[in-house]
Amino acid sequence: MRFEKGHKLATRRHIINAASKCMRRDGISATGIAAIMGEVGLTKGAFSPHFESKDALVRAALACALDDQQHCLDEGQLNGLDLEGAIQRYLNRAHLEAPAQGCPSAALLPEIARQPLNTRQDYEKALGSYVATLAALLPGADPEPKHRRARAIFGLMVGTLQFARAVPDAAEAQAILDGGIEAALQLARAPAASLRMERLRSDTLGSDH
Question: What is the pTM of this model?
Answer without folding.
Answer: 0.85
